[in-house]
Amino acid sequence: MFRKTIIFGLILIFCNIDVAISGTIHLPQTGQTTCYNTAGEIRDCNGTGQDGELRTGVALPDPRFIVSGDCLTDNLTGLMWAGNADLPGGTRNWQDALNYVAAINSGSGLCGHNDWRLPNLNEMESLVHAGQLNTAAWLNTQGFINVREKDYWSSTSYTGAPNNAWVVYMKVGGEGYLDKGYSSLVYVWPVRSGPSPSPPASLRKTGQTTCYNTAGEIRDCNGTRQDGELRTGVAWPDPRFIVSGDCVTDKLTGLMWAGNADLPGGTRNWQDALNYVAAINSGSGLCGHHDWFLPNRKELRSLPDYSQSAPALPLNHPFTNVQSGYYWSSTSGTSSPENAWIVSMSVGEVPMSNKASEYSVWPVREPLSFPVYLPLIMR
Q1: pLDDT given for residue 20 in this prediction
Q2: Mean pLDDT confidence for 355-377
């Protein structure tokens, strides 16, 4: 008779299993759920590679907003907004907009809080719903009142010409910049950080760290309540980018981008841009992957650094051949779907353009997958 010894061993087995690298933040969906052809007609989404088909990102919560007295909290971003989107009862120039919000804080406050601010560009843009014909009208059905179909100031200066500040056109969602002295065109909408420490789609910092006066001169940030002083949002990882062969992963969002920002070697119209990315997937792929797509509006605008211009990308970024013009997104302009959203990597501007126009193409894919070692217990 003998005793049989059973040995338990810890063996490391090499497994090629996809493990997603989650970014520091999670980008939300744009809200677009419909696909369109180049003439702006609704079409079947299957196989289009459009934003309306892929719907990448965090799903928009329902309900999106919670009403708390005279204020609303966004269940997506965690931000609390004034329920009245025209609280001053009219437009202001940029400095008066900052002063107006400061007066709320030094006075009786709003909804029991005295830490309101003029939203930075990322915060202001977070309200844009790319699936709606009119974002302002939609917001007025969500519990807000007096959302104007006009521009709203952000606290973010345009670094390329800092006598200007960024605005968001709330009717359709375009992003541009206007002279800070304009007083008859732009509205004011106070915001503050809400109670949730980790909302589904936390917003990133814009990158701006400098403050400017209305003439565009650098000034001391202390007490300005500008974006350059407050720097609200999630901090960027350092380093932000990881180079993997011909591709680059953004540790902030988890997205993997083609390292060459002009991979086709020239511009394309919108449908040809979608076709080009589809050809990568049906061909030899890129960096060993066959799941590339044309980025949606929010994915494409996640790259700009609003402290920089020409290009508006983080200093020491690893990308090559970044073009000074616009890049196509896969997101159609719902209010005029013969157009699609484009993003300038020179300044960070986000307008729409006709799908027959030609712009640059920059493929992206969801978070990087890589081989890992898994411990297995063997008997």
Answers
A1: 47
A2: 68
44-87 pLDDT tens trace: 999 999 999 999 999 999 999 999 999 999 999 999 999 999 99
Helices (H), the chain: 51-54, 94-106, 121-125, 135-139, 227-230, 270-282, 297-300
Q: What is the pLDDT of residues 208-231, one digit of tens each?
A: 999 999 999 999 999 999 999 999
DSSP-based three-state secondary structure for 97: helix
C-alpha–C-alpha distance, residues 356 and 178, integer Å: 28
Task: List the alpha helices (DSSP H) in 48-187.
Answer: 51-54, 94-106, 121-125, 135-139
The conformation of residue 211, written as its DSSP 8-state character, comes to E
Tokens of 10: 């810890």
Question: Residue ranges of the domains in the chain?
Answer: 1-59+236-379, 61-235
Alpha-carbon distance of 296 to 364, in angstroms, equals: 9
Closest CA to 92 of 83, 81, 77, 103: 103
Q: Which amino acid is it at 270? A: W
Q: What's CA 36's distance to the chain center, in Å?
A: 22
Instruction: Give the pTM.
Output: 0.91
The encoded tokens of residue 292 equal 């590339």
- Which pair of structure tokens corresponds to residue 201? 């789609």
